[in-house]
Amino acid sequence: MPRRPSLTPPQLASAALDVVDRDGLAGLTMRAVATQLGVSTMGLYRYVKDRDELEALVVETVLGEIDTDPPAPAQGASWQDQLTVMARRLRDAVGTHPSTVPLALTRRYRSQAIMRWSETVLAILATAGIHGEQRVIALRALLAYAIGAIQLEHLGGPSGLDALAAAPGTPAAGDFPLLAESGPVANAITRDAEFHGGLAVLLRGLAR
Amino acid sequence: MPRRPSLTPPQLASAALDVVDRDGLAGLTMRAVATQLGVSTMGLYRYVKDRDELEALVVETVLGEIDTDPPAPAQGASWQDQLTVMARRLRDAVGTHPSTVPLALTRRYRSQAIMRWSETVLAILATAGIHGEQRVIALRALLAYAIGAIQLEHLGGPSGLDALAAAPGTPAAGDFPLLAESGPVANAITRDAEFHGGLAVLLRGLAR
DNA sequence: CTGGTAGGCGTAGCTTGTACGCCTACAGGT
DNA sequence: ACCTGTAGGCGTACAAGCTACGCCTACCAG
Question: What positions does the DNA-binding region cover (chains A, B) (predicted)?
Fold first, then answer.
């Protein structure tokens, strides 16, 4: 029992997040995090087994910021409104650390935070009268949409709309008339409106 | 004009894909691909500028396998049916090379293949009477759902359902009663049914 | 005061990407 | 037929990254 560890997991996590937010995902190296903490490179290995474990810590920290309490079912908030709140919370948490998007959504960490989120979403779906298989499908559809939409948003997405919205006309726009026509339209929609618009479509489908 | 290049882009792409399919994404190194091609490591650099460019080539090849012709609007195929076909084609193409999932969906390559796919989807949406802003939102929602669902499917997804479905009871299942209850249900649903189920919800939402 | 345990870290090896520069095969002019 | 310039092909070498290993030392218990 000699000596207490001088670094706590929260310290680790926050140092790693600092590095990522400052230098991007590529800057997340063992050395960089160690330096940020003021210890030697190998000193880090006292606290994490792996680079992988370090990344898991980052992801867990980002997702841990999600508020997973059921949204106050106060006044006339429909279950659709509640699900919208949950989706937005997920999006906001990840959006606060955009560099971690590939990490957070690609890795299949058994994240406690996502389990809490899922539990709350399931509860809301239950109040909507959705049960059994349909509820599982609804949960996964919501998660899939959220993951995909966040990714499109932060990675530019391979949608082609961005390309044409950014540089209309220039490329072989003639081959894609509808895409070319949609470019300016897409440009005029805010990220928020897009996210909520798609979500609304999904929620409308859930209501019988 | 002396000498013709001895390696063609398709050869490059197929060698890289072979490596990925065999050794996984981590096995995709310049050396490995060069060896697969029977050239020296540096010989590769005659054909690609970068490791990045090599990855782009892989992605483009995988997505290039998507059939983007409009589905035969033969008999009584509704626009919903047609969109389902398009979504399934995207899922199938990526699913053929599961290791490339993080690559294909994470990178924001201005993929020609995805542009063709988007164009066809826009056309189908147009026949459904969806135009302007709503059509852009619908396209992105479909793409977001597809990307997210494919990712959940192939990366195990951080949904928590997998964990509880695989090892029911063991973890602190008491903290997540609904999740625990849903585990077995989720287990009984095939990947196909899940993908189509979620998609159906989305399509139902698109129909007024 | 002392001994053992566990934290802390320096060294070094392996893997990876890639800059650089030499060698050589080939087409075309003489 | 020969020479020459261009571009393909590749070997060497280095930087950066992860991490196995093992020494040193601070600390707590007795």
Answer: 29-48
Spacing of A51 CA from D22 C1' in Å? 21
Break chain A into its structural domains and give their ranges.
Answer: 9-48, 67-206
Window 35-64 of B: residues touching A by CB (8 A cutoff) are 63
In this model, does residue B51 exceed pLDDT 90?
A: yes
Asked if residue A193 lies in contact with residue B191, where contact means CB atoms within 8 angstroms, the answer is no
Query: Which residues lie closer than 8 Å to A6 by C-beta, 6 or more apart?
Result: none
Please say if the pLDDT value at position A203 is more than 90. Answer: yes
Q: Is-same-fold flag (A9-48; A67-206)?
A: no
CB contact (8 A) between residue B201 and residue A198: no
B40 Cβ nearer than 7 Å to chain C strand: no
More confident residue, B124 or A102: B124
Three-state DSSP class for B9?
A: helix
HSE, side-chain direction, 13 A CA sphere, residue B112: 9
In B, which residues are within 8 Å of A107 by CB distance?
155, 158
How far apart (Å, rounded) are the C-alpha atoms in residues B176 and B174?
A: 5
CATH code, residues B69-206: 1.10.357.10
CATH no. for A9-48: 1.10.10.60
Q: What is the pLDDT of residues B177-204, one digit of tens each?
A: 999 999 899 989 999 999 999 999 999 9
Q: How far is A63 from chain B (nearest CA, A)?
A: 11
